[in-house]
Fold each of these.
Amino acid sequence: GLERGAKNQFSTFSNFITTINQKKEGIGNRNSPTQLVIPNIKNVRDLPPICLDVRQKQRISIDTLPQELKAPVPPDPSLPIRTKTVKDFQDDVEKAKSSGDWKAVHDFYSTTFDSFLEINAAFKKDTNSQFSTIEDSGIDAKFVNVVYDALLNTPQDVQKSVLKGIINGLLQEWKGPRTKDDLRAYCILLQNPQFSNTSTYVIYAHLLRQIAALTEADHHFLVHWSKKISQRRFKQLVDRLLQFISLRLFPAKPEEFPPMVKCTWWIPSATKVLALFNAANSLISPSIISYTDFYNSTLDHIDLMEEYHNWQCYGNSHRFSFCQYPFIISIAAKKVIIQRDSEQQMISIARQSLVDKVSRRQKPDMNMLFLNVKVRRTHLVSDSLDELARKRADLKKKLKVTFVGEAGLDMGGLTKEWFLLLIRQIFHPDYGMFTYHKDSHCHWFSSFKCDNYSEFRLVGALMGLAVYNSITLDIRFPPCCYKKLLSPPIVPCDHNTLVGICDVTLDDLFQIMPELAHGLSELLSYEGNVEEDFYSTFQVFQEEFGVIKSYNLKPNGDKIPVTNQNRKEYVQLYVDFLLNKSIYKQFAAFYYGFHSVCASYALLLLRPEEVEILVCGSPELDMSALQRSTQYEGYQKTDLTIRYFWDVVLAFSLDLQKKLLHFATGSDRVPVGGMADLNFKISKSETSTNWLPVAHTCFNQLCLPPYKNKKELKQKLIIGISNAEGFGLE
């Protein structure tokens, strides 16, 4: 393959592509596969502005285009007749391997990749058919895969002939819009495994530039065709693009590439093509690959705030920012952006408070720089509700909590405790705000009507404060909740605009009420007479405080029978009623509470799944990872007490491990960055071994006396972590 061959065999391509703008001759011979002089590339279209502003367009607007575009389709030119089959090609390769004569294989590759017409002649399933639909690209995928799988095991001259042919195809002069044959050729060329090698990146970059410059209608076809690629090959294409972006940002050998100033379009082009694959991935349920497979962790090491500010300042303009394509930014990087954005807002609000105080010639007080919440444990919910309602203007200041009658100083630990206890009380079934569904192990909003929804606003504000102050919460909402929370991601200026309403499906209901969703699914697949056998109407019934109430799903719904013809509409309206309409006031209050704290453009970068991770952290505990990242003060990791400690902890049940984490850090959830982000520390306590362990939750620190044996350590540790509520001062 390419790695085995001398890299300088391909260096000529990098050299002559970079001098394209200096070459003025040789245009007449550009179709020759042996030509090494590359003509002026002025005929390759300049890249248009690559700036899909997520504030206006979250994804490429696939769904806004009709299934079959009505724009005039230019006729495809007649194709050469090529009759080679997959078996013929495989036989040629086997003969070449045994005899050492690669001429037939060389001729096939050099002819096939010499032009877009030849690519279509070889790989189009039927050269006489148009294949102008989004559902069928007309590409013989099996033949393409076989040809590419064999390519890297052919001699270097064969591989060079393919690259020369691709250059010829990219340099042909385009007149008018692209044909479907051109799009097919682009789709096939993108799958070339040679582009994993950095020596081909200059050619790859020009291919990406041309694809990025296509019209939105052409992108529409490429997206729908791409979703038919197999999972393994789809992942390879995505990984190849991510690697291209990473190596252009941080090249291992900078001399391999042209100077960055001369190819500023490389990264925008690759990112826009990656956006096409992301759009294809989102069209299918379940998706082809996980959304996390589009993350580029290399971006964690660039100036993310500069990217964020460029995006905020320039928005939908000619200036590229990765924030225009948030799918490529990892959740860890997004957390950094949100944290720093929150810190800047906190500083700005605190500074304004200080200026206001001084301008009124009043003495500044340090407490004015914080959101100070003072609560009694015995009246936790009511006190918290009163404090947050009274101090609504201070919600964006740094949070500090005081428990009345306790001497603890809040350096972070009391805040964690306050969140934990408040959430525990609010979500208790007796409180009546949320219903716990045992089958799905999650909470959902109670549909009971009430006069005051302020407590739902409090829960929303709590979630917002948690994200704003980088606290993880043990809340079990279904994914649908976070989808609704981002509908829309920015609070609309018009207060009459509905909020928290999103498109919901039967799949969303399955995540909350699986038994009911299964029943509705059975209704959809029922083969008998729905009207006669079910005898249902477009009406639902709910019990509220012992009284059965009925609601019409549509006007006069109680008089409209559910039939085989309208059952899909009935199911959709039923799901929409349960997840949107019946809880609208509750969720709207929750929505406004959350956004009263987290009003930030950074939310536009997040997927619903990512909001859930930011709010709840990860429930997966890896105590071995915690052991590897733990720091020690007064102890060495080889000390007997430390070895006893980890032997005991690793043998704990999951429940006891969660209690330990809560005892030492104030939360039993793992932050976005994993256990390493906890900065967990074990310090030596010089107290008597009769004492229990002590924790400083503000600093994620466990103070451990030097217990003499494992049994004593285990006994004292279990007592300590099982009775851990309340704070004091040493």
Amino acid sequence: DGKPVSLSPLESQPHSPRYTASSQRERESLEVRVREVEEENRALRKQLSLAQARGPAHHRANHSKTYSMEEGTGDSESLRAGIVAGNSSECGQQPVVEKCETIHVAIVCAGYNASRDVVTLVKSVLFHRRNPLHFHLIADAIAKQILATLFQTWMVPAVRIDFYDADELKSEVSWIPNKHYSGIYGLMKLVLTKTLPSNLERVIVLDTDITFATDIAELWAVFHKFKGQQVLGLVENQSDWYLGNLWKNHRPWPALGRGYNTGVILLLLDKLRKMKWEQMWRLTAERELMSMLSTSLADQDIFNAVIKQNPFLVYQLPCFWNVQLSDHTRSEQCYRDVSDLKVIHWNSPKKLRVKNKHVEFFRNLYLTFLEYDGNLLRRELFGCPSEADINSENLQKQLSELDEDDLCYEFRRERFTVHRTHLYFLHYEYEPAADNTDVTLVAQLSMDRLQMLEAICKHWEGPISLALYLSDAEAQQFLRYAQGSEVLMSRHNIGYHIVYKEGQFYPVNLLRNVAMKHISTSYMFLSDIDFLPMYGLYEYLRKSVIQLDLANTKKALIVPAFETLRYRLSFPKSKAELLSMLDMGTLFTFRYHVWTKGHAPTNFAKWRTATTPYRVEWEADFEPYVVIRKDCPEYDRRFVGFGWNKVAHIMELDAQEYEFTVLPNAYMIHMPHAPSFDITKFRSNKQYRICLKTLKEEFQQDMSRHYGFAALKYLTAENNS
């Protein structure tokens, strides 16, 4: 009855398929198998529901509650006894989770890397779940910013997120010396009884390096099996760590037998509070630290020391609820078949590189969720009322007002599409210069422009904010690319913000807005990914900011744009060298051959001899690249793909009376590349061009309404052009 039991192999099923590792085919078949199991479970639940509906009255009363059954128990003997007896009628009496019962999950998360791990964990939970979920995230400021934006833009039905400030909890555990790589945050599970709401009775606590292979409701159902004073549900540790025999003079903290692993914990919070858990663990930690001096495995050492003194607190979970893949793991004794797996725990600092004879299979399961399209997890839970979400309601209202028969419906719809966004996908660390002159380069890109990043880094040493439009799988390709690049890994002042793909258009102005919004400097250089700035431009712009008093004037500083048709270019190191290349035909003014109007107002003839900044006037279709204060207007989201996305922004700057000033010793050069998918659509699709013209006219009308008489010149200029 929930007494500690030894780690023993599960009975293997004779007809279950055996695992053979290391092929892509297996990974694909695993995905198919997951869906098959999902369908089988759904059919089984339907049969059970029908059977109960036909059964006695007390069975019918449970009809609405029948949902998922806990397959494992903490008492392997009683489980085997039930099998031997063949008592299938007991099935309906096993603990169940009500259909719409909310499952509470607590996770401690700090920093950029842990935030990425949490997403994969959450995906695996969402994939299998049938119940509303309430995530309680104990997060530092970085993780909160990342995950709050992610969940807000993910908009998954029947999922609630609450944040608790991990930095405020530091004082509760900072007195405990800890050698574990998780640092101070690895001790915070100890204070959950104090941190989580006082009316929350129970919670599943998970490490960020967990992957679910089953419905989390099955684990939630185990709470019904707790008896007496059992308040902690834990799986036995699957290594010899606490036995103290891993190396000479190895001296672990005290533990009951092998001890328990705290990667997955069931906490009965109400009972723990009544038992004065806070006092219990503190006294134990103080006593043990007198001889141990520090923890080696963070909170796990203290949990085990408490359990050693109070073994009655533990309900031992079957080992498949926490299959531990550490270096010295004995986890393979825990499973004989794929169907036995429920939770995988990458509890080694090496993570996916850990040595394990089945690691290829586990890695493929993990990668399935890592690269899984998160948009597909926006599934409604039928029959379970969702809490009213004002953002979702506003979105539905805006979409309902659109005419689906409009030939430009897809263009208009994109303006309201909410794209899942993961800010600061990689580590970011930058403090702007104290003189308040710092400038961030802002750009957006998709996977086909990734090769430009290293070159830009070599030309621009200042901070960069990038919005990347990627699928989930592409985001992982980008991660591998970045981690394998010495140039990118040596830079911590680049903010990489992933905007996940959705819809048929490239949301260029949304991407620009995301990159603009998340800069930490007062000024930004609005560039494009295909341009290389001149060497030294960063320092030149910082000086120009002071010289032209950008802090107190509404100016947009123009960096003249040029282009080359050569893939291999000896980049000019000075204005004189650039002018020489211009004369020789190695360089051209940007879009000189196809769209002269876009940059003609820059007045390149004047720039050739200019030694001081000079002012130019706005003209129709002007789209220069500018340096501007961060409080400038956003880009208009109605323009997607190719056409008018920058023109509209420059027009709005002019309407707000920004002064356009050309910098005499600045330049940028556009590097050649294959035409984008969107420009190809623009050139080949007549309807695309018609819709762009319609959106342009509507934008100009909106400008007239918003800025009044002064904006009439934009209509006139358009008619004259």
Amino acid sequence: SASVAVYRNIYTEDRFRQAYGTEEQRGRERLHHRLAQRCSCSQVDCAHLLKKRVPVCNWLPKYKLRKWILGDIVAGLTVGIVHIPQGMAFALLTSVAPVYGLYTSFFPVVLYMIFGTGHHVSTGTFAVLSLMTGTVVEQLVPTPLALNSSSPEAAEFEAQRIGVASAVAFLSGIMMLCMCGFQLGFLSTYLSEPIVKAFTSAAAFHVTISQLQSMLGLRLPRYTGAFSLFKTLGSVMENLPNTNVAELVISLLCLAVLVPVKEVNSRFRERLRTPIPVEIITVIIATGVTYAFSLDSRYNIQIVGHIPAGFPKPRLPALETVPDIAADTVAITLVGYAVSVSLAMIYADKHGYSIDPNQELLAHGISNTVSSLFTCFPSSATLATTNILESAGGYTQLAGLFTSLVVLIVLLLIGPLFYFLPKAVLACINVTSLRQMFLLFQDLPDLWRISRIDFMVWLVTWLSVVVLNVDLGLAIGVIFSMMSVICRTQRASCSVLGRAANTEIYRSINNHNKCYEVPGVKILTYNGPIYYGNRSFFKAEMTELLGLTPEKIRRREKAIKAIEKREREAISTVEQGVADSSFSSKNDLFRSEVPEGEVQAVLIDCSSVIFMDVAGARLFIQMCMECQKIGVRIYLSNCNESVLKILTSSGLMNYINPQHIFVTVHDAVVYIQQQREKPQENNATVWV
């Protein structure tokens, strides 16, 4: 077996900085050089900035045509076929006409292809965002129960609704652009993986319950606010006698086709070159049957209605609603960005490339802002189509071009043919598209085994979203997650370290019973930050381990005063010409007062103290003063630069010798032992 032998000088922080630290002047020069480099502008810098902010200029010239083009074409066309029914279906969740779902499946796809960094990310309509946006739309423009779909009032009503939905997309895009400008891509990290998974899983229940009325052919108002899921479910149960049997039959037939075929696509996706496009097949058959047998007029089935051909005219969203939608849009923005970045990172790690979170903010910000001018509602990366894009063999963002071409053909030519498409079919597509979200429950056993706290975060978020509401539940989940982090830092453990024999390795004696404590030295480590929130817990832990009780401090203070008194008497005796041979020094006399094995030095390992605030630093200094009162010397080791700076600025050096702050625990232990044996030697060495 290999071995390690080291022979070197003992390093305090001061000595190590003198030997290996950076000179202050050089640091200033480097800062000046960096600032000058940032402020410079050249053709190379401009080209680099263009490639960074418009990634298509970077990857398109490097595109391997023969190797990648076939995969991108097949994957793009497959995703485009899926986008058509899902776009129209998710438009119903947003409480707007289906054609706006097609618009949202076109414009964001093109824009993300230009500005996005995820090679396998498919953007467009997403069920959770559509549900959240639909809640905002229903609050501001509620559905009147008696409304003739062919009347002029209905057209005005639809214009108001898409105006609000577009305003949400516009404001969400502006927020993302501002976050990009301030480099706030890290904010998505506050939506941890358990929160995102629990939130999307719970939102799937809201989507399913909200689609029951369309699947049963009921005309019911859409509930918003707290307990909306139970209100909607109660309303559906109350109106079950009014179910349209024809729409119920259509829904059951669609589910009987969609569910098994989607299961086949999932289980045999490695064998299938492309997934079976069951959604578009179902849409075409249902539209043809409804038209052939006049089901809309015979059985009063709700149909999609007129879908205008061509592009929408650019127009401003309903910006007057911005004050009313601002709070909800914050949640929509964070959820959309968190889901998009999470998906992009998953597939980037899988295929060995990297993404830029701040560039993703820019890409989705531009997508939402520009798309909102063409009557689109909020968009993001989508779970189902991203999975299809990757499994169908897509290589780059160019697949988005072929996806948008499919949607463009539908918008220009085929859209009006979906006039007779039953809304019940779109509701079934919505429900069956949530399969992946419901399967997130499979993660719970592993989560329980790995981390009980993350399991509780998952459970609290899920229950909050289901019981209360999507927005409020998400807020509760984030707050609970942050509180769990705070509680973990507050309850950080303080442990005693022991040395492994004949090594420089120190470990907790609670978990390593063969490690021994260094005689006369108590080595402590605190596994967390020291700040205002946990300073009382830190003090309690340290007091317990060191035995710093008020009684002990008073007893030691009395002993020290007695020593000082005897020292003064001895000096007086010497001045009178009589020597007291029974005492040589204060330290010798004090040692006679200290029982054998008593702690004479405390070494605090600060390697796990990642930061310290002013309150923590003052408490730290107070602990040093209390140790000094009982005659115990304090030593520090492994302090990072920020912690050492805070301690120094708070006046620690008034109570501790700067030469008692060491680079490692072993440096400090060897120094203490050598000082005890040979206090006159200053140039000590470490041998391991």
